[in-house]
Design brief:
Blueprint lengths: L4 E4 L2 E2 L12 E6 L2 E7 L8 E4 L4 E4 L1 E6 L14 H8 L3 H20 L2 E6 L6 H11 L6 E3 L4 E3 L10 E3 L3 H13 L4 E5 L20 H13 L3 E6 L2 H9 L4 E4 L5 H10 L2 E4 L4 H6 L2 H4 L3 H23 L4 E3 L14 H11 L3 H15 L17 E4 L15 E4 L2 E4 L7 H7 L4
Parallel strand pairs: 1-5, 2-6, 7-8, 8-9, 10-11, 12-13, 13-14, 14-15, 15-16
Antiparallel strand pairs: 1-3, 3-4, 6-17, 17-18, 18-19
Helix pairs in contact: 4-5, 6-7, 11-12
Amino acid sequence: MTMNYAFTNGQILNGTKDMQIQTGLCILVRDCKIYDIAKDTADLDGYKIIDLQGHYILPGLINMHVHLAGSGKPQKKQRNNEKLVNTIMGSALTRAIAYNMVAGFAKDELLSGVTTIRTVGGLGNFDTRLRDEIEAGTKTGPRILAANRGISVPGGHMAGSVAIAAANIDEALAHLNKCEKEKVDIIKLMITGGVLDAKEKGTPGELKMSPDMVRAVCDKAHADGYMVSAHVESPEGVRVALENGVDSIEHGAKMDDDMIRLFKERGAFLCTTISPALPYALFERALTNATEVEQYNGNVVFEGIIDCSKAALANDIPVVLGNDVGCPWITQYDFWRELYYFHKYVGVSNSFALYTATKRSAELAGIGQLTGSIEKGKYADMIVTAGNPLDDLRVLRNLEMVITKGNIIDHPKIKKRKNVDAELDKFL
């Protein structure tokens, strides 16, 4: 049950592009939504007063690239993901255990201040199932925009694990129909390989899916009212994706004028994911257990993603943020690092990073009328920090409060991976 709350004595960052600290106001919440933003002299009869004691209140974060089945645990060697998933999904007991794990990871996202996630490849129909249970109030977690399993090809990225391997267009369209029956929110394609798929230096993001298959899926998905996102880590992959109808490029690659033109003609947006490439590019190989080839390709992808993001912003191509959670070293509670990297490596201001991960993401995900900013009529999805994130985004690491649809979680606690945090902290 939600109550009527008045959040007073706070410093408000509303999530808009030119946000500045607002004081002398209180945020009134009724029936899960922001009823009004009133002067602090307003009559607060009927509200439970939450004194923010001068702390900062801002919109909940939106993580636009999540795989809920991943823990972020470092690996000593590459796993056979297809074999692992087949084992996990092989019996009712192991499926139940896996689903509870996924639900726990979603809760970690929320407790870390992420009030909305966009999942782009998961186990079976777990993501839509969990989305509906959270919406019904039987599970605790963020709002979920779910893709369930993506579409890959035999030997393609994540084929057989969080994506199916479609050998031809008919199989791809059959899976699209299944996704629609599962009532997904978006469709995900795996168009190129990734860092760990490449066998030679300089070949990450090798094109795997044919342009004809991309076109067929996009045409059918658009006709049925769905947006299509695509895993792409090479210039060739970006061109194939945009030429054939993809709406969002996940990751990206070094831009040229032709790619910029295609982004604009398509009206597509970029989901920047610096987090997963950073360990493979910048860590010592003794830590990542990466081969020389994997480290080299990790650096190619890392630099390509940063270049793509810079070029997109310079050319007014919309950008959102995701941390590809589930990759080694990337946990379900550290999306705040992606904002920090966006500031550090792409060179944006802290306020622009916050805007990108809140209002901008909500707009591009198609839910801007529901969330993403502290505005009258939107859901009360907010977080409270002790320090000012405009001065230092690292204050997002430890939150005073998370508010999700008007429900307050005070001083959220999460079990963290100390070894992961210690190594990633070296790059802050």
